[in-house]
Amino acid sequence: MTGFSDASLRERAARVVPGGMYGHLNAALHGDAYPQFFVRGEGARQWDADGREYVDLMCSWGPMIVGHRNPRVEAAAAAQQALGDCLNGPGPVMVELAELLVDLIPSADWAMFSKNGTDATTQALMVARAATGRTKALIAHGAYHGADPWCTPGLSGTTPNQRADTVEFTYNDLASAEAAAEEAGDVAAILVTPFKHDSFEDQEPADADFARGLRALADRIGAALVIDDVRAGWRLDLRGSWEPFGVRPDLTAWSKAMANGFPIAAVTGVDALRGPAQTLYSTGSFWFSAAAMAAAKATIEILRETDGPALMERAGARLREGLAAQAASHGFAIKQTGPVAIPWLSFEDDATLDKGMRWAAACLSEGVYLHPWHNWFLSTAHTDEEIDRALLGTDAAFAKLRAAFGAD
Amino acid sequence: MTGFSDASLRERAARVVPGGMYGHLNAALHGDAYPQFFVRGEGARQWDADGREYVDLMCSWGPMIVGHRNPRVEAAAAAQQALGDCLNGPGPVMVELAELLVDLIPSADWAMFSKNGTDATTQALMVARAATGRTKALIAHGAYHGADPWCTPGLSGTTPNQRADTVEFTYNDLASAEAAAEEAGDVAAILVTPFKHDSFEDQEPADADFARGLRALADRIGAALVIDDVRAGWRLDLRGSWEPFGVRPDLTAWSKAMANGFPIAAVTGVDALRGPAQTLYSTGSFWFSAAAMAAAKATIEILRETDGPALMERAGARLREGLAAQAASHGFAIKQTGPVAIPWLSFEDDATLDKGMRWAAACLSEGVYLHPWHNWFLSTAHTDEEIDRALLGTDAAFAKLRAAFGAD
């Protein structure tokens, strides 16, 4: 295919895809400045269909974690692909990957694999329901747990029955979780993200007392504590994102960055839930394909050997410091929230996101891809040089914004 | 990893995966003779972890359709992978693939992509529900539509609410479908496989009157007719499996063989449902990854250029004739059901499947991988020579079975 442009592709896509695009990568949701089509990635960079190069601070919305086209991950997947990927059973690599997860994650005595993050959150709730014989899942209001009808943030195409087995509480409000448990009665699981990373809002760390309180609540009512580490997993603590609190879940859902972009998801769980997990019929045509498992093994080994989270924390701290200095120098009051490796920036007094949208658009035009209403993601490919390159763009974007808004 | 065997891998897997394995590829479901782990595929052959070679009549339970490691498909995926797979937006190949589907499939005015067959059946029902504002889906009793809680054949881990939006009818019994529609009242969709391919049962073609009657029923009650072509798609008629009846669905779910083993699924639909489809929030981290789309495009192009269904029909006819002659010569009364490209063999007077299990086990030991209670799948790599090699094994297996049961 030659001679395409983002505009020509959009025009063609509008004829053969509803709305031209859908889901979280739909540029229509992101703002007029956003390109829709991408053609290449390398390390911390991506190129759109118009050939524009970006320092990529979204990492494909999470999956990329050791750099686009990481040579070791690509080689591991290609070597497996050269033998076979989708066969009449899993390859030996499934066992190796499960052993790696069990070795690495204190709350993991076993693992089950699938494709989508939503497969993992759904499967985790199935295990909890099989174990307890109960139906309800407590979830935080506004939290994203996937796009299946039971959890998609859009209600279109869903039925009341599909939404009837979840009961909401307020993130970081233990009393609200206790009240929801009381109200629901029949609680199989408490499903919670390791920090609050809802779209359109400042990110919020979990209070240690909230995390410990949910663990205690789950124990008291005999429900499973399920951490949805699909978005945050592998960037903060390879042992699980609440390990620093000393809070270990019964079940954890993993996906996104697990295989550096290759499609895979997993549920890990404690020994007590091994029997109930065996009773499920949960499967998919490609869930046992070997190439993505080889990629996952390589990705996780790289992260462990290089202390990937420390590298991403260094990159994130450098970015955060740089952005803070730039905002101050251009006279903008900003908030930087979330773990530094999963950062977000918002402007004070910007309820409409007008400033945020304009600044993000200016960043795009300066060759930095980040987002005005969804958290960003860093990778181990974000070296000091890449962060500094990004900061050149963000500084120019602040200057443009200042020019647009006039002197402070 | 060296020095492994199927037995040693099972022992290790038992420690780190619930039950050692789960889902449709769990060898424990298939019989003692079945190997669990596979290491390699090539053309119409697969090798298990003990190095045993098989003529593969299961095609990885559907996904392989132009031969394991088909050079053109592998090259297309690798070329895309070398540029980028999972990026901040889809690649141009998404447009090309959607255009190909719209060009090929008369009932397709648009396409949406996902990963699992279950994603596609679920998404199709979401579109139908968004379009109609109704909740219920009519499905045939015993039909497999995936493994999400709403449709998995195992009830463990599911809730009554999750199962409450489907109403069953009897396959090939139009009156039962009409009665189910009457009973349900609030019907958004009729979801149906193009033929009856339930496990443990002889396969059954759809009656043309049944297919046309469902189309008329859907029109009369204002529901969407959804064909679940996940299992049968691409092997019978590239235009959709009910096109020979002249029955065109409103929506079709596709997956399995679409990309020769690369993970992808799709929903295609008619123009009237384009608007409702736009209202969904349905997405996944890897749904827009480009390598699997490049593989899908190459697979479908090969199937179209070579008339893949005709090749598979030739292979299936040769297999069916050979098996019929062998069974007669060894004095076994058998039934061969399903389209010849998606065949199955069962024994008369074998309600316990004892004969079928023994014969399948003997086939395995003769280097032929097929199945005693699930339909098989052929591919375009099943040349006359491969079918003849398989028939050598099945003949020896009939002989063993005859020896075990004594003279007829």
What is the gist of this entry?
2 copies of one chain form a homodimer. With 408 residues, chain A is α/β, with parallel strands linked by helices.
Notes on the protein architecture:
- Chains A, B: It comes from Microtetraspora fusca.
- Chains A, B: This is Aminotransferase class III-fold pyridoxal phosphate-dependent enzyme.
- The structure is a homodimer of 408-residue chains.
- Chain A is α/β, with parallel strands linked by helices and 408 residues long.
- Chain A has two domains: 6-61 and 307-405, Aspartate Aminotransferase, domain 1 (Alpha-Beta Complex); 71-305, Aspartate Aminotransferase, domain 2.
- Chain A is 39% helix and 15% strand.
- Chain A has helices spanning 6-16, 71-83, 92-104, 117-132, 160-163, 174-184, 208-221, 274-278, 290-305, 308-330, 354-365, 384-405; strands spanning 38-42, 45-48, 53-56, 110-114, 136-140, 166-169, 187-192, 195-196, 204-205, 224-228, 251-254, 265-269, 334-337, 344-347, 368-369.
- Chain A has a seven-stranded mixed beta sheet with strand order 4-12-11-10-7-5-6, with helices on both faces.
- In chain A, strand 13 and strand 14 (344-347) form a beta hairpin.
- The termini of chain A are far apart.
- At the A-B interface, helix 1, strand 1, helix 2, helix 3 and strand 4 of A face helix 1, strand 1, helix 2, helix 3 and strand 4 of B.
